[in-house]
Amino acid sequence: MTESKEYDIAVIGGGPGGYVAAIRASQLGAKVALVEKDRLGGTCLNRGCIPTKALVKSAETLVEVKRAGEFGINVALQGIDFAKVMARKKSVVDTLVNGVGSLMKSGKIDVYHGAARLLSPRSIKVNDQDLTAKKVIIATGSISSTIPVPGIDLPGVLTSDTILELDHLPASLAVIGGGVIGMEFANIFAVLGSKVTVIEMLPQILPPVDEEIARRYAQMARTQGIDIHVSSTVKEIKQADAGLEVMFDTAKGPQQVQAEKALLSVGRWPYTGGLELEKLGIKMNQRAIAVNSRMETSVEGVYAIGDVIGGIMLAHVASYEGEIAVDNALGHPNEADYRSVPNCIFTLPEIAGVGLTEKEAKDKGFAYKVSKFPFTALGRAHSMGETAGLVKMVCEAEGGKILGIHILGPHATDMIAEGALAIQFDGTAKDIAYTIHAHPTLPEAMFEAALGQLHGAIHYGKM
Q: What contacts 296, CB < 8 A, 6 or more positions away?
C-alpha cells in the first residue's frame, strides 16, 4: 500500500482557480498538493479563454489585412490556412500550459495527475495514492451544458470544446445560444469566412450585457453577415444535404436553417463528477457547491471556488476566489467582494462592462444619470480606423457615484480596468473627469463620458 502523503492544503482542480490557489498557499508558506485529471490550466487555458483569444487574433489580423489598403499598404490576400490558424492556437496553449507547470515547480507544489475522490474532509484518493490535508479546496470547474432536443448527439453538433479541434473551416455554422461563448465563436467563424446563423432563446443576445450595448453590437454583427434570431427555441436537429438542419420556433412561426456544423453553446454546468460529495454531506445549490463569502462549504475545512460554486463563472473570478479561500484556510480572514467584476467579451468590436447595467440600476430603484461618449468623436479611434462603439457610464444622480461602466469598441476589454478600479474604490464621475488622461488615447473616451456626468463632454454633444 502506498504511504499517505500529508499536506497543509490540497487543491482539487488545476484551472485558473485551483492553480492560483495553490500558488497563493505556497507563497504563504503552506505545503501544497494540486490534483488535476487533465492538463494544467483547466478549461480556460486549454479549451476556453486562451485558445479562443488566439483564434480572435487570427480573425482580427484577417480584418486588418483586408483593410490594409485604407492605410496605404498594398497587400495581396492569398487566403486562409486554417490548419496554421489552429496550429498557432495549439502552440499558444501549449506554451502557457508549460508555464503553469513551471510555476508549480518553482512553488514546490506537488502535482498529482488523476481524478480525485474525497474519502473524508481530510483525505483524498488519486489513482492509488492517498493524500491527507488539513484543508481541502475544490476547484473542479464546469462542463458544457446541453438541452433536451432530438438530434443533439448527431455528428457535426459541436460543443465549445470540440469546435476547437476542427480540421477545416466549415462553410456554414449554426450557433445555438447567443451568450458570450456563442457570440465569440460566431464572430470568429463569420470573419474567417463561414456563413453563421445564431439562434437565441431570449429576447436579446448577450443577456449579461447592458441592453443598449447588446442591441448596438447585434446591429454590427448583422452587418458582418451574422444572421441572428432571438426569441427562438430550437426544437430538433436533423441530418441534411448541407450536413445538418436546425429547426426552431420563432414569434413568426417555425423556421429552419441548414449548416455544415452546429455549435451547442447554451452555458456551462458546475462539475463535481467522481468527488462523491454526497457522502461527506456537503450542501449543494442544485449542481453547484454551496459556499459562504469566505468560500467555506458546509463541511469544516473544505472550501470550494470557481465555476463549481456557480455564481459568476469567469476565470478571473475563480482566481480571486482561490486567493480568498487560501487566506481563510491559513488563518487570514477575508471575504469575497463582487462589486467590481469586469465582464469581457472578445467579439469584433470588443465589449466590456463592470457594475450595474442601466436596467439593473433602474430595477434596484436608483435615481441615476447616463452619459455616453462615442468613439466617432475620438482622435485615437480615427487614427486606428476603429470608430464603432461608445463608452456608457451610469452614475447616481446625486453625487455622481459610479454604478456601472459599459464599453463597445476597440480595446474595450483593456479599458474596462479603469472602470473596475473606480467602482472598487467607490469612485465618482468627478474622480475620473479630474484625472488627466493622456492624449491621443482610447481611455479619453472614459474621461469624456465622465465629463458628460458633470458639465458635458468637451468633444461631443449630448447622445
A: 302, 303, 328
Which of 332, 382, 439, 459 is the catalytic position?
Answer: 439
Active site residue 439: yes
Segment 215-239, tens digit of pLDDT: 999 999 999 999 999 999 999 999 9
Contact call for residues 133 and 124 (beta carbons, < 8 A): yes
The per-residue DSSP string of 31-80 comes to -EEEEESS-TTHHHHHHSHHHHHHHHHHHHHHHHHHTGGGGT--------
pLDDT digits (tens, 9 = 90+) for 360-395: 999 999 999 999 999 999 999 999 999 999 999 999
Cell of 77: 490576400
Q: How far apart are CA 307 and CA 288, in angstroms?
A: 8
pLDDT digits (tens, 9 = 90+) for 425-452: 999 999 999 999 999 999 999 999 999 9
Q: Determine phi and psi for 321, rounding to 5 degrees.
A: -65, -30
For the chain, the helix, strand and coil percentages under 3-state DSSP, each to the nearest 5: 35, 25, 40
Nearest to 319 by CA among 47, 54, 45: 45
Look up residue 44 and give its three cell numbers: 480556460
Distance CA 147, CA 177 (A): 11
* Dist. CA 122–CA 329, nearest whole Å: 13
DSSP 8-state symbol, 300: T
- CA 351 – CA 344 distance, rounded (Å): 6
Domains, the chain, ordered by start: 5-144+269-329 (3.50.50.60), 157-266 (3.50.50.60), 343-452 (3.30.390.30)
Q: What is the dihedral of CA 399, 406, 15, 45, to 10 degrees?
A: -150
What is the DSSP pairing of strand 261-264 with strand 253-259? unpaired
Q: What's the pLDDT band for 461 if we cut at 50, 70, 90?
A: confident
